[in-house]
Design a protein that fits this description.
alpha/beta; Lyase, Ornithine Decarboxylase, Chain A, domain 1; TIM Barrel; nine-stranded mixed β-sheet; eight-stranded parallel beta barrel; 23 strands; 26% strand; binds ligand LLP
């Protein structure tokens, strides 16, 4: 969050509010989300792509009705990948034409609801789905705007990209072996579909633009092939999401304007070389928008010192509110936020309260050596893929999301209660 400061008392404040007051009012653990930061990031993406391109926020990173309203107000579009996300988007007033539906195995019901609502695009992910969406649209008397998701043969991760062994994945239709060209052939023949473009998503938490460059080049080549074969120039390409954020000080993320400049210049250059009009470009950042805007506030419960070995600091949440460390070996940092401390920094492992040893929140981090039960600690950059991947493991009650803005705090997703658990347990 951008509005984090340390007050005279040594405690941290965010959005003008002392974290001790937030913990008092909303309890811990809690995700604290800086609304002004979220909006600023939306605006930065919107401005970077300058109206020449579209930004589709990837709802899988974190979605709630308030988030949908902020996106709408800031001029962003929304990528959803399930009926649940679609329902949230529509319930919060996102115009259907600004919604894109994704997924490698959309159900017939999901497709029907999306077509009926009039979503701006459905991203087709398989040969079966081309036919399925066409039939549903025809039955509803509609012509659905679609893109075809291709796998371009690039798999990108944080600091590298691999241009081999990429077709071996469940998403999309391979460019290799003429698969994507065949998909285009079939889609163009179906009355229920209006093929508007090609989509490519190469991975997540990426810093190196080289993977996007290869992806853009291959997608533009496909557009040129389509023009040569069918005489049509598809008007749009989508280069997906995946832009990395700083989880620790080692990470060096790109600003939206650098990303926009890089992507548009590659696409423009490749299109000029192929004699194509430059298509409208869209991107789907999730993590890069919401990730840095929130931190998780925990209370320390126990401190176990193993002399000469390690210190375990246990917090009142864990893998149920942040599965990323256990699942991906993700790296995070942590700070003592309820007070100042002059104690020496000490290497600790921050762990949760769940019944397994892999329940680690921050594998290796420094906290002042006097950290003690009752202290509040914060793990930054938990806005993306933490609440959205949270679970009820051990019947944990999923934490609330508290939005802070300019001296006010309000709950946008409330804490679960035991009644919520009981409601589902109908045995
Ligand atoms: N577009 C498509 C088609 C995607 O599959 C994804 C993410 C995005 C956009 C957004 O990517 P982002 O900009 O947020 O990196 N749970 C994992 C990340 C899974 C990403 C899945 N797809 C994590 O916690 O790191």
């Amino acid at each position: 969050a951008r509005t984090v400061t340390r007050t005279d008392t040594g405690a941290v404040s965010v959005g003008g509010l002392d974290v001790r007051a937030l913990a008092e009012e909303f309890g811990t653990p809690a995700y604290v989300l800086d609304e002004s930061d979220f909006r600023a990031r939306c605006r930065a993406w919107h401005q970077a792509f300058g109206g020449e391109a579209d930004v589709f926020y990837a709802g899988k990173a974190f979605l709630s009705r308030a988030v949908v309203r902020w996106l709408h107000e800031e001029g962003l579009n929304l990528d959803v990948c399930s009926a649940g996300e679609l329902a949230t988007a529509l319930a919060a007033g996102m115009p259907a034409e600004r919604i894109a539906l994704h997924g490698n195995n959309k159900s017939t019901e999901e497709i029907r609801r999306a077509v009926e609502a009039g979503v701006g695009r459905i991203v087709l992910d398989s040969f079966q789905e081309i036919v399925r969406v066409a039939h549903i649209a025809e039955r509803l008397g509609k012509r659905q705007r679609v893109q075809i998701r291709v796998t371009v043969g690039v798999e990108a991760h944080t600091h590298e990209f691999i241009a081999t062994a990429h077709e071996d994945q469940k998403f999309g239709i391979a460019l290799a072996g003429g698969q994507a060209a065949e998909a285009v052939r079939r889609a163009l023949k179906l009355d229920g579909l209006e093929l508007i473009g090609i989509h490519s998503h190469i991975g997540s938490q990426i810093f190196d633009m080289a993977g996007f460059e290869v992806s853009a080049r291959r997608v533009v080549q496909l557009l040129a092939d389509i023009r040569d074969e069918h005489g049509v120039e598809l008007p749009e390409i989508d280069l997906g999401g995946g832009l990395g954020i700083a989880y620790t000080s080692d990470d060096d993320p790109r600003e939206p304007h650098e990303i926009a400049a890089s992507l548009t210049s590659i696409v423009t250059r490749e299109c000029q070389a192929a004699g194509l009009a430059v298509p409208r470009i869209s991107v789907e950042p999730g993590r890069a928008i919401v990730g840095p805007t929130a931190f998780t506030l925990y209370e320390v419960g126990t401190v176990k010192v193993l002399e000469g070995l390690r210190t375990y600091v246990s917090v009142d949440g864990g893998m149920s509110d942040n599965i990323r460390t256990a699942l991906y070996d993700a790296e995070y940092s942590v700070s003592l936020v309820s007070r100042a401390s002059d104690a020496e920094p000490m290497l600790v492992r921050v762990v949760g309260k769940h019944c397994e040893s892999g329940d680690i929140v921050v594998r290796d981090a420094f906290l002042p050596a006097d950290v003690a039960p009752g202290d509040l600690i914060a793990v930054p950059a938990t806005g993306a893929y933490c609440r959205s991947m949270a679970s009820n493991y051990n019947h944990a009650l999923r934490p609330p999301v508290v939005a802070v803005n300019d001296g006010t705090a309000r709950v946008i997703v409330r804490r679960e209660t035991e009644e919520d658990l009981m409601r589902l347990d109908v045995g």
